[in-house]
Amino acid sequence: MKRQYFLYYDLILAAFVLALLISNIAATKLITAGPLILDGGAVLFPLTYILGDILTEVYGYRYARRAIWGGFIGMVIAIATFTVVGWLPYPPEYTAQLSYEAVLGFLPRIVVASLVAFVVGEFLNSYVLAKLKIRTKGRKLWLRLISSTVVGELFDTVIFCLIAFGGILGSWDMLNYITVGWLFKVGVEVLMLPVTYRVIAALKRRERSDADDRRANFTPLSMSLQK
Fold it and tell me: Which of 27, 81, 97, 212 could pair with 41 in a Cys bridge, judged by C-beta atoms 3.0 to 4.6 Å apart?
């Protein structure tokens, strides 16, 4: 079987992982947008779903699947590194230990919430997009992009909020937190549709690739690029 080489897949993969790692660090700060309270991860995290859409639409589910697991492994390595460094002894003249722990000292509950939510949300996003492409015979790209994000971001937001803040936030606060976060992320996807359209069209021309996942193996438990 002849292997197919792409010009830009590695760059998009790198951007996907980088956006994910930066978002998780930025999420340690809360920000306000009028009456709304969001975490700093909301600034960049929607980009991971846009990049996930591009990977699935142009290269196919199996390439998006490899990117998702690459991002997951990158998160685990980053969290483990920050945690070990935080535990290591430090000299008396180092006075920023508490600041380091406040930003990079991830709580186990937040770690689990982030990892589980990311994997479930991203795989659902890619799966729904690929299946809708088959169902619509490659038409209605706007419908595929929005629908996959609605599903993926919903599960991502619900899982993260429930694991991270279940038993801490009251029912109404939890519902508000989930709803605001979900609508914000979906809103970013909708606003970015014109850009996403142009990037997908350009990549399809340059890569000479328009993914056909009719014979794809949709198991998430693989990193193989074989159909």
Answer: 27
